[in-house]
Recover the amino acids of this structure.
């Protein structure tokens, strides 16, 4: 049976990760596929997984009483989906709706948290990688908030 | 609109401060507040030649003059195309022009994108909002001689799906096998199935070899600043990041000083600059 290790190693989020950490991650990982229109997770549900996307497109949405579902971001190949698994109370803050058939690697959050607690070097490595994602998303959100294409009179 | 043609010089004799007359051939709406004007010469048949990135001063008689980038195909010299937003008095007057109306045109002015310097290299065209207009001639030029360039990508961001320019062309470009087109909007809607997120998020995923990439960038200055960060992160060198700047251009020939920006007159030494030429001025709040 083919192991997930080479697939994980190719993903930008995990590139360069030491083999011993990779092996630890593989034991928490599984291959998943979602069809268009399917929800990967919804607001308020337990954040018990996170995903690295290999193919497809997923919209992060939040409902608005006046505008229906608002898409705040789309993620695709090479991206990470979900970080609520990292911080208490481990609940999703947005809906993740599949726009195009999506193939991803899902990581069991409890499994990974336990491994990070047991091996702080792995935990630090994961935190560094997620911090990079947080910063990029924060910067992008700030730029979105600036509304740079609007006519400012 | 002015209708008499007698008092204006023919093209060959034109002084840069004297407008030549052009007649509106067509005006069509691109987005709710943006439109494209197609102009044809009203006085003479001499072809209008320009380099991608140059701009014209469009003069609505009795209202005023505005600098607008030329956004048509440099190979099609019989029609002069300008896409602009209806934001001020002159552009509002332009937005109401009817077929056959005559306006004054001075130009072309300024520096171009120098597409030739990108030959054999990978090309990233990064456009934000109406910034796609001055970059469209770059794309036309590259596609006309596609084999001379490496990997070519258009990364285009807009505020909302309904504010995307040149939709029919975007779809055609997307269908090409020799061009990558990535489009994103800052605010998605339920029916938008494309990407949502700022244009800078497309840069890390763009296929290119940063060491041999030329990036042509145009959009609001804030967007260009973040685009530069991302391009630098990828490893694109400052001299290969090419930007189109915008200031209050008036004379178009570097005389009046309205568009002075540090040591540069945007209308003459610009609007297109390599980032290494303007790096020190780019983030200065005072100018």
């Amino acid at each position: 049976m083919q192991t997930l290790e080479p697939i994980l190693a190719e993903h930008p989020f995990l590139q360069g990760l030491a083999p011993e950490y990779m092996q630890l991650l593989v034991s928490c990982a599984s291959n998943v596929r979602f069809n268009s229109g399917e929800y990967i997770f919804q607001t308020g549900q337990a954040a018990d997984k996170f995903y690295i996307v290999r193919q497809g497109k997923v919209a992060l949405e939040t409902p608005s009483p006046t505008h229906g579902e608002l898409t705040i971001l789309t993620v695709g190949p090479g991206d990470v989906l979900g970080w609520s698994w990292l911080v208490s109370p481990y609940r999703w803050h947005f809906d993740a709706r599949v726009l195009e058939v999506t193939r991803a690697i899902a990581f069991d959050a409890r499994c990974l948290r336990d491994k990070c607690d047991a091996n702080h070097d792995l935990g630090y490595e994961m935190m560094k990688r997620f911090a990079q994602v947080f910063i990029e998303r924060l910067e992008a959100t700030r730029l979105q908030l600036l509304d740079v294409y609007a006519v400012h009179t | 609109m002015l209708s008499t043609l007698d008092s204006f010089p023919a093209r060959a004799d034109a002084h840069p401060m004297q407008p030549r007359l052009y007649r509106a051939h067509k005006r069509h709406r691109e987005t709710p507040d943006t439109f494209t004007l197609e102009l044809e010469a009203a006085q003479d048949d001499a072809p209008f030649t320009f380099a991608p990135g140059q701009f014209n001063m469009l003069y609505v008689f009795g209202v005023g003059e505005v600098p607008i980038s030329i956004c048509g195909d440099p190979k099609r010299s019989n029609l002069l195309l300008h896409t602009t937003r209806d934001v001020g008095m002159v552009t509002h007057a332009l937005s109401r022009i009817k077929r056959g109306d005559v306006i004054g045109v001075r130009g072309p002015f300024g520096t171009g994108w120098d597409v030739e310097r990108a030959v054999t290299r990978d090309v990233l065209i990064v456009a934000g909002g109406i910034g796609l207009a001055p970059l469209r001639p770059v794309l036309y030029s590259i596609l006309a001689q596609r084999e001379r360039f490496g990997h070519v990508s258009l990364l285009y961001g807009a505020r909302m799906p309904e504010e995307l320019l040149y939709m029919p062309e975007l779809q055609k470009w997307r269908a090409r096998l020799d061009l990558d087109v990535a489009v994103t909007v800052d605010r998605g809607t339920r029916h938008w199935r494309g990407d949502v997120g700022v244009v800078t998020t497309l840069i890390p995923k763009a296929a290119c070899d940063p060491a041999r990439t030329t990036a042509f960038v145009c959009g609001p200055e804030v967007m260009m600043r973040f685009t530069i960060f991302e391009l630098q992160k990828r490893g694109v060198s400052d001299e290969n990041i090419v930007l189109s700047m915008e200031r209050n251009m008036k004379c178009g020939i570097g005389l009046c000083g309205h568009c002075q920006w540090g040591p540069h007159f945007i209308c003459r030494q610009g609007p297109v600059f390599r980032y290494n030429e303007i790096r020190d001025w780019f983030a200065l709040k005072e100018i």
